[in-house]
Design goal:
alpha+beta; 2 helices; globular
């Protein structure tokens, strides 16, 4: 995988509001083929603790959705993004990171 540099995101998105509305781009939410590219993102707190791990084929839109709707988003200081050639590879990495890292806000591995 190709690892992107850490992105400082504090202040770029407002804290999650009580009710949220997320505008979806056309085709978002439709399951992509297993051989399509995907990314795994890791959200970290100021103290370096792992808050959340996710996988997406639509990184910008997924981060915006978290910024709008996730109660834990205000705790995020940095996001690390890892890019993969296929969703299959990204899912395997997401699963490994959740199992090994125990992020506080992940409910379960899909």
């Amino acid at each position: 995988y190709h690892e992107q540099a850490l992105l400082a995101l504090r202040g770029l998105f407002p804290a999650a509001p009580q009710a949220c509305t997320v505008r979806l781009m056309p085709g978002m939410g439709i399951r992509k083929p297993a051989d399509s590219p995907a990314s795994v993102y890791l959200c970290f707190a100021d103290d370096g603790s792992l808050l959340y791990v996710g996988m997406t084929g639509e990184g910008r839109y997924r981060v915006r959705a978290h910024a709008s709707c996730s109660s834990w988003w205000p705790l995020v200081a940095t996001v690390q993004v890892r890019h993969f050639a296929t969703r299959t590879l990204a899912f395997a990495e997401e699963t490994r990171l959740i199992e090994e890292g125990g992020p506080k806000y992940n409910r379960r591995v899909r």
